[in-house]
Write a structure and sequence with these properties.
alpha/beta; 40% helix; 11-stranded mixed beta sheet; Amidase signature (AS) enzymes
Length: 495
């Protein structure tokens, strides 16, 4: 029974509640049991079974009284440890926040609890969301649940939302919150065979999210299906007066946008996304994805985004600059880890030296450098100008097409011990995801195929600002054509 419960999507769980086939407590218990079974993955940095079971009990009481089902009623959720949870430890996977218990709730998680969702625990991540492989966490690395037959290697789940992705892929959460600054939802989604959505900048509130780069960070869902992602995004979206960057656009019913038709849709194939390092299997899947849409009645159009090559260097100037400013608050004075010194400067140095990991220190140093006198104009100001150019190019392209299709990542997941040894090569993992963050556009990663060895590959859709409805419309059709879960079952049955 518990195994069957783990395979259900949100709609099926709600159908079971209506028919009284099972209770919210039974669903929650199944996920908590799976969480225990999969602890070797290190997907969670904090498990909250008591909180989960208490919430499930309240859901069952509501249902026994005949009250209406809320959108996320009884849905077990993993929460990336970047989202503040009132009374529950939140660390951003950093030693400097190892004992921080927020006195307030993030808007995204509050919306989930208001809609009946159940928190299973806080998921692992790269420290302060800085990383592409979940290797920089103060709690240790997270393992992907994906493995290759007759191969002892373990693979990275992607980052920074690697814990959330591993939990959903391993069925120790039905869905999970995540955040995307340069690809941190979509890249783990591609590596773990999931749907990941980065909404338009400002669509979801950033209140209560531990900040990395404020003009780029955006919350979004990780799920096993496009429909579940659509439901969760609808719940977590909307204007929030607590967040000055939160926008007042109305929130559509994204699930209803999944009409099953893309007839007449113009799909752009950006030629500059044929980047170096793109594997032949990834390139072939990209072509196959375009053919699925063409067969469904869409028009395929080659487009050009000539400044794509500058997106990654632009990102790695802007993001560290904002990080160096945001992380200045962690000084050992008001909260978080503290190492005393004989002077105030010494307290700062010791606290930050001991509290931050190497990748965070690296980005703070880069950010401080590009913002310093004599370099601000040469680096930071120039990067802001390039950002405007990239944004305009997207705007121009979207006068010709409705949505863009590309790979999510150049390669499938890589094994531990085989990761790039220098930071710049590691940063190339984000080369195809970063442009959407630079321009603040919505983007979705969809599991579309498997490598010959059996690792997931993802395809990415990018839409104009506030046109997430097109993402879900297109992704729904592609999901049906890809038959990803069918391919996974066939692969596993053959092994």
């Amino acid at each position: 029974m518990s195994k069957d419960l783990l395979s259900l999507d949100i709609a099926s769980i709600h159908e079971g509640f209506r028919k009284k086939t099972f209770s919210a407590q039974e669903v929650t218990a199944a996920y908590l049991s799976k969480m225990e079974e999969t602890r070797e993955l290190n997907a969670y940095v904090l498990e909250t079974p008591e909180v989960a079971l208490e919430a499930a009990k309240k859901t069952d009481v509501r249902l026994s009284k005949g009250e209406d089902l809320r959108d996320m009623e009884g849905v077990p959720v993993g929460v990336k440890d970047l989202f503040c949870t009132k009374g529950t430890r939140t660390t951003a996977a950093s030693h400097i926040l190892k004992d921080f218990v927020p006195p307030y709730e993030s808007t995204v998680t509050q919306k989930l609890w208001n809609s009946g969702a159940i928190m299973l625990g806080k998921t692992n991540m790269d420290e302060f969301a800085m990383g592409s492989a979940n290797l920089t966490s103060a709690f240790g690395k997270t393992l992907s649940p994906w493995q290759i037959k007759d191969d002892d290697r373990r693979f990275v789940p992607g980052g920074s939302s690697g814990g959330s992705a591993a939990a959903v892929a391993a069925q120790s959460a039905l869905v999970a919150t995540a955040s995307d600054t340069g690809g941190s939802i979509r890249q783990p989604a591609a590596f773990c065979g999931l749907v990941g959505v980065k909404p338009t900048y400002g669509r979801c509130s950033r209140y209560g999210m531990v900040a990395f780069a404020s003009s780029l960070d955006q919350a979004g869902p990780l799920a096993r299906s496009v429909r579940d992602a659509a439901i969760m995004l609808r719940v977590t979206s909307g204007h929030d007066p607590k967040d000055a960057t939160s926008l007042t656009h109305s929130v559509p019913d994204f699930e209803k946008e999944m009409t099953g038709s893309v007839k007449g849709l113009r799909v752009g194939i950006p030629k500059e996304y044929q980047v170096g390092g793109l594997t032949s299997e990834t390139s072939a899947l990209w072509e196959e994805g375009a053919s699925w849409l063409q067969s469904a009645g869409a028009e395929i159009v080659e487009v050009s985004l000539p400044s794509t090559q500058y997106a990654l260097p632009t990102y790695y100037i802007l993001a560290p600059a904002e990080a160096s400013s945001n992380l200045a608050r962690y000084d050992g004075v008001r909260y978080g880890h503290r190492v005393d010194g004989e002077t105030l400067d010494e307290l700062y140095e010791r606290t930050r030296g001991e509290g931050f990991g190497d990748e965070v220190k690296r980005r703070i140093l880069i950010g401080t450098y590009v913002l310093s006198a004599g370099y601000y104009d040469a680096y930071y100001l120039k990067a802001q100008k390039v950002r405007r150019v990239i944004t305009r190019e997207f705007q121009n392209v979207f006068t010709k097409v409705d949505v863009l299709l590309s790979p999510t990542t150049p390669t499938p997941s890589f094994a531990f011990g085989e990761e790039p040894t220098d930071p710049v090569t590691m940063y190339m993992n984000d080369v195809l995801t970063v442009p959407a963050n630079i321009a603040g556009l919505p983007a979705l990663s969809l599991p579309a195929g498997l490598t010959e060895e059996g690792l997931p590959l993802g395809l990415q859709l990018i839409a104009p600002a506030f046109q997430e409805n097109i993402l879900f419309q297109t992704a729904g059709v592609m999901e049906e054509a890809a038959e990803f879960q069918k391919k996974v079952k066939a692969m596993r049955s053959s092994s």
